[in-house]
Amino acid sequence: MDDHKSQSRLRSEHLASGYGETPVLSDVSLAVADGKMTILVGPNGSGKSTLLKTMARILTPSSGSVILDGKAIHQSKSREVAKKLGLLPQGPIPPEGLTVRELVAQGRFPHQGLMRQWTREDEEAVRDAMDTAQVSNFADRPIDTLSGGQRQRCWIAMVLAQQTDLLLLDEPTTFLDLKVQVDLMELLADLAHSSGRTLVVVLHELSLAAAYADHLVMMKEGRVVCAGPSHCVFTEARLREVFDLDAQVIRDPVTGHLVCIPLGAHARRKAAVRVA
User: CA 96, 83, 29: angle at the middle one, nearest 5?
Assistant: First the structure.
């Protein structure tokens, strides 16, 4: 095992998983970089969300294993895993009438028990989580009165209230305006780079993934095709191989981020007209 794998708190080893009799993942080995943001991309049905759910102990693998802090995660108790790893699923729906503060407080569930009720430590954790996610100003408002971006920040605050160093998020920017997407990615990047948390994020937006990933993973047909720094993975050849996408990859002159420019027939015709 190489140094990166041996030092990674969370990793999968030869993982196979799916839904009932339908296999999705096949022989997936992935070491998650500690204190970084790892972003999973791939076509629909490539296994991104399945991998995330299996690593979060929501799905049970048919073979292989997920290792968290040196132990097989599926052999660990749910509450103990929840004290180390937080999951934000895709499109969560809060109970009707729940306020922001009440939702965020649910993140303290792993720390509650028969012998331990609500404490000042819990209150401080909820307050700190709301401050970090910038939702304190509407803490007493019902979740269903907020905008999509505000609601997503509330869900992130709930996960932060668990006070885990490992966060798994399934498409947190879906259905949000571009400005809101960027703001959320800035928040997540800050959690990794300023707070030292380890994040694994599933994204559809390729240019956002390339811009914010410390470690970019491309998946296709239930396998990891390539993984590494964005400048190594986010190439025209890989986009063609994984997404069947004819595109140009350029580097933004201001930010230095890689950007995907699709080259469909319409784009080529416009380019030809400009040249002429």
Answer: 105
Buried-state track 117-132, b at ≥16 Cβ within 10 A, e below 16: eeeeebeebbeebbeb
Work out the burial of residue 194: count CB atoms within 10 Å of its CB; fewer than 13 is exposed, 13-18 middle, 19 or more buried.
exposed
Has this prediction a pTM greater than 0.85? yes
Instruction: Kindly state the DSSP code that residue 95 receives in the 8-state scheme.
Output: P
Contact 28, 222 (CB under 8 A): yes
Q: Is the pLDDT confidence value at 3 over 60? A: no
Phi, psi of 39, rounded to the nearest 5 degrees = -120, 130
Taken in order of first residue, the domains within the chain and their CATH numbers are 3-84+166-244 (3.40.50.300), 93-163 (no CATH)
Residues of the chain by 3-state class (helix, strand, coil), percent to 5: 40, 25, 35
Task: Report the largest interatomic distance among the alpha carbons of the chain, rounded to a whole angstrom.
Answer: 77
Pick the closest to residue 202 from 186, 219, 190 (CA basis). 219
| pLDDT above 90: percentage of residues in the chain | 82
- What is the residue type of 81? V
